[in-house]
Amino acid sequence: MKASIKSLTDDYAAALRAYLEGGGEAPLFRAYQIGRSAVAAGIGVLEVAAAHQEALVLDLLHLLAPDESALIAKRASEFFAEALAPFEASRRGFQEATGVLRDLNRELQQRIEVALKDYQAAQAKLDERRRMEALKDEFISIVNHELRTPLTSIHGALGIINTRLGANLPEEARRLIDIAYRNSRRLARLVDNVLDLQKIESGTVTFEIQTQPLRPLLEQALEANQPYATQLGVTLVLEETPPAVRVAVDGDRLIQVLTNLLSNAAKFSPPGERVAVSAATSDGYWRVAVTDHGPGIPESFRGRVFQRFAQADSSTTRPRGGTGLGLSICKLIVERMGGRIGFETSSGRGTTFYFDLPMEGAPGEAADTSACPESR
Amino acid sequence: MSRKPLSRILLVEDDPDVQVVASLALSEIGGLVVEVCGSALEALTTAPVFQPDLILMDVMMPGMDGIAALEALRKDPRVAATPVVFMTARAQSHEVARYRALGSLGVITKPFEPESLAETLRGLWESRDA
After folding, report:
1. Probe site for chain A from B24, B27, B110, B112 (most A CB atoms < 10 A)
2. CATH value at residue B27
3. How many domains does chain B have?
4. Whole-prediction pTM value?
5. A56, A57, A219, A274: which has the fewest C-beta neighbours closer than 10 Å?
6. Nearest CB to A163: which of B94, B112, B115?
């Protein structure tokens, strides 16, 4: 490379000498060509410039007239402008790229800021919602306490009169005390139901789901509700169930649902009748059914059965003492446990309320069932 | 197991009407000896003197609540072993579990049935350490 730079300097010097010796512009054009081909051959632009400079300085510069010197400088600057053009282009490209990057950066930053603001707003909303929920829970807990305290004294006072003094009271007073006493109990149930409904609906209630055998839960529910049914002259019967049926439920809540269905069934059964509870597979679920032989649900009411405070006939409200919330609570509970609730009814023949629960360990149960073919 | 039957109850309840009704239900119907305290703080000073067999206590009371009172009673050697039954609005099963874990013998839901209040307490009393 050194040799070729040396020859480059020599070539420049020769071209300049030819020019000075009266060669016109041709030698200058030749110098220009020398530079171009040197760059094309891979010699760096700065080295070419250095060779050009050296030729001028060493040999000839002092001999040139000022206008000649300007012409050479003009040619040289044209040459260097051309040689540097690609670099200039890439410098501009680099600047543009830098500009684009800077814009991108700014845009990204703006987006991040917007996203951050959105996030903070969402967080604030969430905090606010949590705060409101906590306030609501606290409010409900206070209402619960405040409603129950007077109810406790009313119910307690009436109960004591009933137990201790009932026999000494005139017939009319005894009847009225009995009405008040029963209704204070109903009011307590209504408070329970309203709060229960609100708690389940808002999700603040904890369901303690455990996989457990179904039959003991059915037995417990029947046992707990038989005294009430007996008062109405109704017998609760648990039919044979498939063995080893297991369900993933909150046991207390399942019994709450059964209690509701059983007391409804007993309420609407003629005295002397039976209410049957059964469990069987249905469409991939375990179906628990409570069947009565009551009057059936009037057609006009069938669409509103699970609505709040809906009762078929306002005349049934009083003697039957319901709160009108039982079935909507049942529906919420069953759905929270991954199940579904429904009914079949036939006027004058009776009603079956059922709920379906997802099957647990279905294959094992299937084997058990086939081992006991008489079970249903 | 042969133990002395339940006879002395300390009732801790801030509502005066509930105090009357509950103490009548326990004494007139239930045949128990009842002392009434209107606050948890009063109960902390009365309990060691009255020496009840069992303390029936409201949970939600102004000032010190039933939970704090139970913790304080447990620290007083004179009444540390006295069983406590809470009386409260219907509690969820995890709340009942928490009361049990704190050392209460049981929970009675308000409104209670006056005819059976004393019987329920006797049942809980008999079931101790069973």
Report:
1. B110
2. 3.40.50.2300
3. 1
4. 0.58
5. A57
6. B115
